[in-house]
Amino acid sequence: MKKKVTLLIISIILVLIILAGTTYSVLFKVDTTEKQSYTTGILDITSNAINNSVTLANGLPISDTEGKTSTPYTFKISNVGNLKYKFDVKLLSTNSDTTTMINPDYIKIMVDNNTPVKLSSLTDGVILSNKKLSPGADLEVTIRMWLDEYTPNTEIGKTFTAKITTTGQAVYSEAVKLDNSGANIPVLVDGMIPVVYNSLSNVWVKASTEKNIISGTCNALGDLDNDGEVTVTDTRYLFQFVAGMRTFSDEQILCADLDGNGFVDETDGQLLNQNMAGAINTFPKGTPLSTVNATVEKSPFTWYNYDDKKWANAVLVTGTNRSTYQNANPGTEITEANILAFYVWIPRYKYKVWNINKVIGTQSYNAQTTGIDIVFENGTASTGTISCTYSYAAPSSTAGSPNETCTGNNGDYYTHPAFTFGNQELTGFWMGKFELSSSNPATGTSYGGGTSTSLTPRILPNVTSWRKNTLSNYWKVIYDMQTSDNIYGLPTSRINTDSHMITNMEWGAVAYLTNSKYGRCTKGSCTEVSINGAWDNSDGGSSYSTYYTTKTGCGPISSGSTSNGTKCNAYNTTLGQTASTTGNIYGVYDMSGGATEYVMGNISSSNGATYIYNARDAGSNFTYSTDTTKYLVPYAYGTTNNDQTAYNRGRLGDATSEVVKSSGGNGGWYTDHAYFPNSSDSWLSRGGSIYNSSNSGPFSFNRNSGMSSKIVSGRAALSIAS
Questions:
Q1: How far does CA 389 lie from the centroid of its chain?
Q2: Between 20 and 30 A from 568 (CA), which of 138, 192, 246, 492?
């Protein structure tokens, strides 16, 4: 998608003079329109006024009842191009002198038939959000404005002027679901490019986001060169097709889907190899050379398939080739040197609860060993039946008496709360694929970036993790990925897109998806995510503890190892992929080992309080307020960290108190650490580190100070309102 900003400059002049018989007019005038040409079409947006002005009745402050029946101003936005337009409509002040400007608290605005609001309550001036115009379509907008009936005399003689603008983007095609899992379609924002991995060339390529299904009969399953046999040539042909080096006829595609999952990918090539080696005599779809009916996706670059543990991946790239990649065909290589950040899509879901009261050692079903029962939800619907309220009172020491009170029972479903971001319901969110690195990932005493807010974040494999920075500094640099001059191509408006440091609840959502059939569980048996045990000794450190120079995306130093060493089995190797949340290259990395990661989770300042306990955080870039509550998961105050009293302070979905099997601190699932934040260390960190060995993992949680540490990093997330 291309970003497009079109300004429909409409002057709005409101002059207030408190004199008997005076009327107040809001005058709108369309001054300009703009047209933008693209290689794929033309976006041409025009506007015109339908009537001239709206008059404030009697020239005096009036009630909402009167204002809602006043004469509206109406204007029309038209799309006369050939591309779809998705946009927001904004009303922005143009007053240069705020001392003579009418206080927006006293100006009421009613758009169309929506509820009247104060002008001051608008976020970034948005009066209509997420509107769409197809080619040839029009949108009429009516606006009524009036002075609130409680306007004081202090506003006499002041003025208010503003302009109306639209900001949006051209939409080239509508996304469709590409698999049958029920997962919501990943939402791409400006700057993002969907990608899949080409394992033959070991490169990331642009993915296909369109569905092109073919159905028919395959007359000889596995025979791709039409010679009447299944041989090594067929294997070569299949891998070449998957790599984009060979085209197939429709029948060849039907005959290449050997596992019957509706896609042709590397798995089918592996089945051919196994058949050649005599390891298998038949394919899941049928016996070699048999006649089968099939329905298969035609493109080898299909973006995702959650049923096959292929989570959707997307990248942000440098501005140099961004437009080239956005307009490129599926299969085009996205050069690694151009990539700034990798993200993985976490679709909205509900899960079957097994420990609703956070009692140590409780599982109403074998959620750990056989897998968490997860059901993807459609759109932003909340179909879970459990609802919860949280108390910040002093925690109880009694099992079964948590601070969070939830309706329902074990075995009921709960819509995961990570998909509620402030007052927005999300279809999913983007998780940084790797822990944070920086624009200067130097080793040694630089700690991959160190204590700084001047460096810019990267989310990349095979580089030094960004460490020894304060939690609030990590929060700031991730938040600043949307500044007006950002290098990522991300939207600068935070209305529908929000870059932020990952919350503890978002971490929990990824951890739970990992321990399900969509992640590390297959046929009722789950495997643990392997540890990233690699440290870099190129800085001259005598051991890992000299600088704790961890590297992103590495796997265990050897198969099954929980130790640390200098060997980095990269994320795209067989061993490296065992450290992924899916067991393949499409999952999230560094959730076990590497550097411990700060997440946004903190305890309240005292019993009964709802303000965070800002203990020992050497920095103040994050301040808890009503405007920032969505960026943090708060917990009740407490002094203990590894007993029932501590675990009573957890929340459903955050992968803390639900996953504790025993007290003492090492009793989490897979023997992961289980230390809850307390009055000594009020922040949460997740995943463990190379230092924590077998106690590291996606379910590891620990108390931390928020201060800079040479073994602590962070992670980015993107919330998208579709």
A1: 25
A2: 192
